[in-house]
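Q: Okay, next protein. This is Glycogen operon protein from Pseudoalteromonas tunicata D2. I've checked the sequence twice, so it should be correct. Can you predict the 3D structure?
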Amino acid sequence: MSVTLEFLAGKPYPLGATLQNEGVNFAVFSAHATKIELCLFDASGHSEIARLAMLKGEEHVWHGFIKGAKAGMLYGFRAHGPYMPELGQRFNANKLLIDPYSKALHGEFRWSNLHSVELSEPLLNANFINNSDSASDTPKSKVVSLAKYTGQKPHIPWSKTVIYECHVKGATARHPGITPQKQGTFLGLSEPAFITHLKSLGVTTIELLPCHHFISERFLTDKGLKNYWGYNTLSFFAPHSDYLVNDNIAEFQTMVSRFHQAGIEVILDVVYNHTAEGNHLGPTLSWRGLDNLTYYRLDTANPRHYINDTGCGNTININHPRVLQLILDSLRYWVEVMGVDGFRFDLAPILGRQYSGFKSRHAFFQSINQDPILSQVKLIAEPWDIGPGGYQLGGFPIAWREWNDKYRDTMRRFWRGDLGLLPEFAQRLHGSNDLFEHNGRGPLASINFITAHDGFTLADLVMYQDKHNLQNGENNQDGHSENLSANYGVEGPSEDVQINALRLRQQKNFLLTLILSQGVPMFAAGSELGHTQQGNNNAYCQDNEINWLNFKESTVCNELSPFIRKLIELRDRFFVYKKLNYLHHNDVDFHLTWLSTSGIAMTAEDWTNHQNQQLGYFIEPRAHIKSQEVLLVLFNASDKTQFFTLPTRQNIKQWQLCLTTLAVNESHTHYSSSDIIAVAAKSCWILSAVIQETPHGTL
């Protein structure tokens, strides 16, 4: 059935579907199409009711205006042009295309051969073209309009930021305090029961795994699995529809507003490095069908194939100004309309890679730096990909923060008991100045973490020596084989009381080290609950209880949640963690001393002693600092109790024990200067003291 509509020329800006007083304006970019049709669908999305030829205006923007059209209209595009994959051209008007600027999607994506243009590798130079219409299995773009976000944002400084990395569904899919209808959704995540949990921990910022609409790869659905993490983007603007309760994208705004009212920031993990269209045999869903030559980086020697710096089949061509615009427009939308406070960029080197390699002055970084909106939000890079020169830890611009995997690996090895790590342990604890200070950044450039969504959970890190990924259907070949983990005598769960006590103590050691390191601490959701993935270190495809958190009361939960809270309170209590610059020997605000077990400064021999696994971290404020409280942290990663002599200072009379990682803190909570204390095997102690003024009022 077709309908008669008044279709006018419209305007080339803004891109996407824009609701106006008298109708809807549509605009889409394609430099190489010969014709683009706007296709309209009935309310069910099943029947195509009109095809309207769009006008090609200046700068390769096709546009049109439907008078009288309203919010809720469903549409898509069909792009005509040459199909010459050997030259990078992949037009096929039989494939319905999602608007790259669509703010909402309607209907489920279903895998079928309808989406493929090439069903198999072409033989010789003969192209086998699949001309089946794909509309029935393709989500439709939906005309929506949201007002800009008006809530009050927390604006938490980096010096006070503590990040909780979280999956929207997994956090509440079986939370007993959230109604079943809202479990696993944006609204469920912002229910009082979960927000209260976050506040009880003391975290300031929630970092959500991908919330852009995504789909599962075909090889997963063929095995009965799903892409759970969400790193397979279908739209850079539309929220993932499975996380909506009533198919209303305003629910995302509501979630953000509730977090903000509770004083919690929202950061999105975003994927602008590749799309769900995959490699040259993948589905034609949007960008590929609109202008393959523009949106993707192609192999110059064989343009049929894609550059695959992502390991996901294709790579976005951010060097093209229109693709750069698409990403920047998307980022601004999520800040201005949806209200988020920042972004963590997946495989971020791709966003700064020119054909000559990664550049910290790439147009992407410069565009954000000068943007009045984006320059004011939190920016975090995952500083690696699999492309040439893909490891760029420390190489990002000054305003950026970076996931620090060297911190992760060093801390895992140190507490596992590896030898010869003391100098690097101290450097990572102190903020990794070797990585970030070269361009004027301070310790807060380092996002410190022990575990994240990718890899073992904190509980599994001390419970499994090897990965156990058979449920992923890849014969345990996927995921990293070296996890720098230990099982302490039993692989997996144990009924041995001593083993379980050691495992709990090691989790506390990791958490204490993380939260009291210089830099920005981030821990993965479930760390406070003892969450296990049963040894699966690549649980990206497990949409089940392997990933869903269990909030039922447990001994581990009762131990770790208040422990994290206490650590965050201690971090907030000591002024040194608010310092923006690295603390060196001549620092005007604090004096740092690395202590040996004898209570005096470490010597060169102490640092180079391969067997040494003990260290004291002693920070004294200078006289002008408001709080004259001294911090002392004692680390013992060895398998034996070590005796530490507390440092002797004329202006310190008494030490107070703040916290240990032992099951029960020592009953003796006050110590005199130069006392000797026994620090148990694989444990940490935190002590404090108040500097007493000398008779002359100086130190």
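A: Here is a summary of the prediction. Confidence is low (pLDDT under 50) at residues 122-126. Residues 497-515 form the longest helix (19 residues).
Q: Noted. On to the next one.
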